[in-house]
Each structure stands twice: as C-alpha cells, then as structure tokens.
Design brief:
418 residues, mainly beta, Methylamine Dehydrogenase, Chain H, 4-stranded antiparallel sheet, 8% helix
Length: 418
C-alpha cells in the first residue's frame, strides 16, 4: 500500500523549507509552493483537493504576517508622550504595575505601587490619573486582570488582602471588594490572573508567618472576592516568599530569589505546590508562559551573560538553556533582565546594564534577541533618565512602567495593533 500524502494542517512542515528525508515520494521536496496570482484570485474549487504545498505556503504567509504585527507593536511605543510622571514615587523606588479592566465598557487602566495607599485609575488611556480606591493600609506593587475581574493586593492593620473589581452588568464596575487571606500571611508579593481555570482565578504569591512560601488561589467571582472560596496551596517546605508566577494550562510555576533561587510547581486542585530544582544559580528575574510555543521561559540576571531557560512542563530536569552566541546582546557586560511580556510569538523584555537601559525582543522563543532603545528616553526633562522596569500586555497594547531614582513613575504604551 502506498504512503498517504499529507492532507491536513502541518505547522512544523509549513515553517521549514523541505520535507524530512523519508521513503515517501515527497522526501526532501519543498514544503511550500506559491500557487500564483491567478489561482489566489480565483480561489479553490469546491471538493477539489488542495495541493498541500499551496496550503503550507498560505499558512506560512499568514503566520509571518501575524508575527510581524506583534513585532511592530514591540518596536513602536508612541504614547503617551508626557513629561510628568503619572504619580509620586513609591517606597523603594519601584516602578509599580499597570493593569486594566477588559470587562469594562471604557477599559480603564489601574495602577499600584509599593507602599502607596490607593489604586490609581486612568479613564483616558493613561494621560491623566486619579486615586480610585483607598481602603486603608498600603498596596504591594502588583495588579492583575482577567476577562471577568481585576485584582490587587494590600495589607491593612495586619490583615493581608486581595481586592477585586468587576462588571455590574451595565458596562460599569461593581466597586472594589476585599478578601482577607487565611493561613497566616505576613508578606504578599505578586498576584496574577489564570485564564486556564474555569471561571477564572487569581494566584497570590507571598510568605506566611512560619516562615513558609505562600500560594493562595482566589476565584475571580466577577470581582466580588469577599465571598470567594480561597484555597492555600503551600508549599510544605522552604522559607522564601513566592515573588513571580507563570500560569500554563496544566502547571503553574512559582519562583523567588533571596540568597538563592527557589522554584515551585503545582496543578489546580491537585495537592500542594512541590519544589523544583532550579536549572541555574543566577538570579531568576521573571517567569513566562508562551502559549504559541507551549513552553515556560525563565529569565535571569547575570554576569556574562544573563540566561534564558525553557521547559514544556517546568519539572526538575526538564529545563534547557537557550545558549546565546558570542554576538548576542545578552553576552555584553552586566546585562540584567528586569521583566518581560509575551505578545503572540514575540517576547519583549526590559533590561539594565549598569547605567544603560532598554528593551530586547525575541521572535524565536529566546534563541536570539534584538535591541531597541528604551522608549522612556522621551521623558527626558531632567536627569536622571527614567528607565523601564516592567513590561505587561494589556489587551491589544504592550505597556511599560519605569521611574526616576526617588522620583515619579512614568509609563510607555505600544501601538493598538489588535
């Protein structure tokens, strides 16, 4: 019986030049062939088998253009071109974090910073800001969103809380609603949205009084968090606070660096978080889940160079390093990743190197990186220059925050490429 010629979508073959060597008649033949303007103009006939090389060509062209859209957004940061910072400085000269309300008709932005008393909001896409919620106490510099709700974390009088906001069913908001976390927390560090859990949920990372790493699950519940059934996920050992979390469809990966790296992995509704042996001793700066590649990515600070590691499961022994070539920008001097965001197939990361700062972009899952100047240079009224510290994807736009030493927080925004 003769071999069956490929008929369906073949993304891997569509991205390579030749079919693999085999006994098939198409062995080492081109995977893609341009059907030509005439066929493209007329289209394909009903029930007529499509030539797979034509399909591969079209699939590849569509993928290239989608990736180019992501790259255009990553390289262009046109607004808001403002000289003033969005709010005053926070404790520890932190850049704070921006999130937004995808569930709101006007999609307002929200901002929190370390030690500030309020969640700030902008109803005009970042041009003006005002205090939106002041519950008493102080916020931590982390805020997250899902399609159903937005959440931030703060402490008030020894009560460690996650506060949420969501839709009222009429295109507006219900207002901020707080949940006090159990299991004796004494520090909260990060909150992230997990879209892979039915109904949506937020994961909060921090530390308990034991001390012990703390991971709390809080259902989104449309932002009405006071009635949400929280779940503490451990882990059972360790002492460092969980400061970063990446959410994949099955596994969630948490990380921290104090005197050394710590990594944890867990599944929703399957036991407590378990320790993972870190693949590197260099300080972990950010963890990412890259949906289009189906991989987790770990970025480090470091000396000659910073490191990039990937894994499909996040388990011990599953991490492999993206070794950088001699000409890579990651090889030059004290290159330190700060934070990163994923837009489609494009990864955008902020970095510092001594007094230098900017962005680097990868379109091949961390194999190579391209440098662009820090868009914060537009905020150049007085020295020192503000520098980008955090990058986030909010809906159809990349956004970044940065600060001047002991000064105001600034922001940058990418294109609305949708």
């Amino acid at each position: 019986m003769s071999a069956t010629r490929p008929k369906g979508p073949t993304p891997i073959l569509a991205s390579t030049d030749l079919y693999p060597s085999s006994l098939n008649p198409w062995s080492l033949q081109p995977t893609k062939a341009d059907p030509g303007l005439a066929i493209l103009a007329a289209g394909f006939l009903p029930n007529d088998p499509i030539v797979i090389e034509w399909w591969n060509f079209l699939h590849n062209q569509i993928g290239r253009r989608v990736a180019l859209t992501d790259l255009i957004d990553a390289k262009n940061w046109p607004e808001p071109a403002r000289e003033a910072g969005i709010i005053g400085s926070g404790a520890g000269s932190d850049s704070g974090e921006i999130s937004y309300a995808p569930w709101h008709a006007r999609k307002p932005l929200y901002f929190v910073n370390n030690g500030t008393a309020s969640i700030w909001t902008s109803k005009d896409d970042g041009y003006t800001w005002s205090a939106d919620h002041t519950p008493g106490g102080t916020f931590y510099p982390s805020i997250a969103h899902l399609d159903q709700a937005t959440a931030a974390i703060y402490v008030n009088g020894g009560n460690y809380r996650v506060v949420g906001n969501g839709p009222d069913g009429l295109g507006d908001e219900t207002g901020w609603d707080a949940l006090t976390l159990g299991s004796s927390p004494n520090l909260l560090s990060v909150v992230v949205g997990d879209p892979y859990i039915s109904g949506g949920a937020f994961w909060v990372g921090g530390r308990t009084t034991t001390p012990r790493p703390g991971i709390w699950k809080v259902p989104a519940n449309g932002g009405l968090l006071s009635g949400a059934a929280q779940l503490f996920k451990g882990p059972a050992s360790g002492a460092d606070a969980v400061t970063m979390i990446a959410c994949g469809p099955q596994y969630k990966i948490g990380g921290s660096f104090v005197a050394a790296n710590s990594l944890w992995r867990w599944e929703d509704n399957v036991g407590a978080a378990a320790s993972v042996t870190p693949p590197t001793s260099k300080e972990i700066r950010d963890l990412l889940w890259i949906p289009e590649e189906g991989i987790y990515m770990l970025l480090t600070a470091g000396t000659d160079p910073s490191e990039v590691w990937i894994s499909s499961t996040g388990a011990t022994g599953s991490w492999s390093q993206r070794v950088q070539g001699a000409a890579s920008i990651l090889q030059v001097g004290e290159f330190d990743f700060r934070s990163a965001a994923v837009r489609g197939s494009t990864i955008v990361a902020a970095y510092t190197r001594g007094t230098e700062h900017g962005l680097v972009i990868s379109t091949d899952a961390g194999i190579s990186w391209e440098w662009i100047p820090d868009p914060m240079y537009r905020h150049n009224g007085t020295a020192p220059q503000p520098l980008t510290r955090r990058i986030r994807l909010l809906g159809d736009r990349l956004r970044g925050t940065g600060y001047k030493a002991a000064g105001s927080v600034y922001q940058i925004s990418g294109l609305r490429t949708g």
